[in-house]
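Why predict the complex rather than its parts? Because the way molecules touch one another can change local conformation, and only a joint prediction can capture that. The input here totals 1009 residues.
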Amino acid sequence: MSKSLRFLLPLALFVALVGLLFFGLGTDPRKVPSPLVGKPVPQFTLPTLQDPKRSVSDADLRGKVSLVNVWFSTCVSCRAEHRQLMAIAKESGVQIVGLNWKDDKPDALQMLRQFGNPYHVVAFDEDGRVGIDWGVYGAPETFVVDRKGTIRYKQIGPIDQTVWEQTLRPIVDQLKAES
Amino acid sequence: MLPAALLAGVLAWPFAATTAHAFTLEEFSFDDPAQQAEFRGLIDELRCLVCQNESLSASQAELAQDLRREVYEMMRAGKSKAEVVDFLVARYGDFVLYSPPIKPSTYVLWFGPLALGLLGAVVVLRTIRAKGKGQEADLTEAERQRLAGLLSPGREPARRPKGDRS
Amino acid sequence: MIPEIGHFALILALALALVQAAFPLAGSFTGSRPWMGMAKPLAWGQFTFTLVALAALGQAFLTDDFSVAYVAHNSNSLLPDMYKVSAVWGAHEGSLLLWATLLAAWGAAVATFSRALPLAVIARVISVQGMISIGFLLFMLLTSNPFDRIFPMPPEGRDLNPLLQDFGLAIHPPMLYMGYVGFSVAFAFAIAALIGGRLDAAWARWSRPWTTVAWIFLTIGIALGSWWAYYELGWGGWWFWDPVENASLMPWLVGTALIHSLAVTEKRGAFKSWTVLLAISAFSLSLLGTFLVRSGVLTSVHAFATDPTRGTFILIFLCIVIGGSLALYAWRAPSVSTGGGFDLVSRESFLLANNLLLTLFAALVLFGTLAPLIYEAMAWGKISVGFPWFNKMFLAVMPFLALFMGIGHLARWKHDEPGRLARQLWIAFALSVAVTALAFLPGISAGHATVPLGLGLAAWLTFSHLTGLYERLRHKRGLRGALADLTGNSRSYYGMLLAHLGVAVLIVGITMVSHFGVEKDVRMSPGTSQEVAGYRFQFEGAQAVNGPNYRAHRGRFLVFEGDRQIAVLEPEKRSYLTGGMPMTEAAILPGLTRDLYVSLGEAVDQQGDWALRLYYKPYVRWIWLGAIFMGLGGLLALSDRRYRTATRRVRAADTVAAAGTARI
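Output of the joint prediction:
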């Protein structure tokens, strides 16, 4: 390597490093992307929240485009996104299936009474095992599932107006258009 | 910004919601000490997903306890270490492993250092060889005179040459 | 009122820093003595004002002034005074103020202890330090002001994170920062040398003591962090390759390479541009570490509250300082004529080889720390790179480092004969091989190949250095001659010896505790016993106790070795009154060859049963002992009379240096 080029190497490496770090400032290192995107929903059968004698399973996620929303009653962000979920349920016609994760049943029921119930049905995952199968590590998380029962997107964090309009709704619309 | 605040709330919740869960791993015991050691080794190398960089064996978070139980029960049921790892990676991705798996995308991570080391060794050897070939800076005539002046005590001290900025 | 004084002091410090960065430097080009002469008073002034600001913040903590937001977030009226003081640097804003104060302190020190330096050099060095100070002061005043008020004033503070309410952690940041900031002096000397076009032995001689002091502080700071993690976090670990830990290790590795490289440049005039690059890199890595800890780019238990806006500011600052210095390097360094040549077998070779190994390892640590980010940027998936990878890299590099360390100190400068070295070292080598072979015995190695490796390397380092010592003392006249050597001009030799033996001690500690540590998770009822590694732990139950700002359960253990009771251990499980997660305070019986360690988990029923952890940690203290030896070695080397000999010798060196000066 020619003499003066050799001395430029440290600077060049530094420039690359800075580029990487600027990129890093825009990312969230704690977000874990899901390896389940593009795969069929995990098999599960759980009692529903409202009626333990009824059950909900992965079969209920086939035939329609669905949002599977993971929540629990003491989760602040879940409460914050609840209103948006109500709006989505009312306006868009996509079915929202709730996965009540490691919650206290009376508290969960109370939350739905108090803030409304946007869910078509709520699965009650008391010990969190189904959550593990879905790769859940926090709440709220929302999965977008297509008609064939394949997970197509995972939203980490609460859904607000912007997230719905700019990210989720376009996906849902596209999935609805698929045969 | 609202989304950022909400996200911050999400990320904070595992610690808010966890009750006084001190923990030990005492409940995860095996009859076979080798299996016990394998369990410990495994949870040492698995990452707690909700923590700020802690292993499954060290973390006090609730999800960590759930995952520890999951790993324990799988091992008790006779699953091998590889099967447990595959189970978790299928659900959480490679992020859950502190030791990145060796696959094409991680070749640069595992074999890059060797390449870098060899490159460094080559550079060092070439540098030393080059230096050894008598690359002493030759003195210019002016410098030779100055040197002579300094070495013979009777002479006047040399004037500072032009360009010396001290 | 006091916080306002502190705030104003910071503004004044910034003003002085602006002047300090501009005028002395300009004066060094125009030859204006008055302007260059401003350097020292400005450095002193900046130190005074940053110190005033730090004192003001300390006062706010000690008087429980919760109208200051930083105090309200990090203190509490029940907090013991010692921790109120350490809370000053316990979080982001205050730690920046500590950084700025220490930076100014080092600047003032350079201004004071540099009588022999030419005025232009001092002017440039202090100007460069002023530039760095501008960055930190501006950062504080614009984004992270420790003196911001909070309204309405809360009646009580949020309390200092209980993890930080600890002596070890109280002094760990000041030690670390003294190290990080101290490398700014070597950096400033390097920049001054590049600007002035003089990269010579004199520059190396001036830089060495400052760099060594900084290196000593950083060594101790890192060791303190490791020791603290061991006894505080409750799981007996002492290094996790966490991003923030790595951020402190990288400047240390490069700093170690730097102090050795400076030795070569001073003695032989070789490695000049490489040494300058190391000086720039050591401080750059310190700054990079500051960025990584405060920007939210990487996840770490150590990270300060993260904020991308602050991260952007620091990154821009890095671009200016590091980018600028590397550009200056690219421009000026090529014109430095190469110094003394040397052969393949020579002391220079071995020093160069180890320099490169240390730098390689630092680069690997950087690579591993940033790899998750690189993978995300390249869309190769999200991965974690943790201790398994780092440990393997350490195991790959360390043996070569130790191997060359054992030979290098005996090799002659410029040229040596392999035969001569072999003759001197074959006994040490044979002994090391013997130790390695012995360690392969199943009883000792327990099936791990890394045990013989570690012990063999430590033996090699020890025996080869003892050989060197013998060779050296052989020519002195008896014991008196040996003692005279120690108190005379050879302290740098003994410093080297001590520091290198420290490395051997460190290796033994790491090897032993990694392989022979025993950890037992058990449930115990009061009155029962458990055995770990031949020691019996008898549990006497736990009682509720109260501390100044917490409530706790305190367990009581009697520890027996055979029939003899050797200790009473009382671990605690604390709940701090301000809330938050319960903290475990382990009880440790320290020893030179082993630690016994008990940590309470949780109460499992009403009968007083507890789930807890018992540890046997052999030779763990050797890890920090090794670090202490390294620090003491550095101190010894520093006290060498060569550095304290006055003006006369340095002036002579100056003239010689002028003769051998690199042309611009």
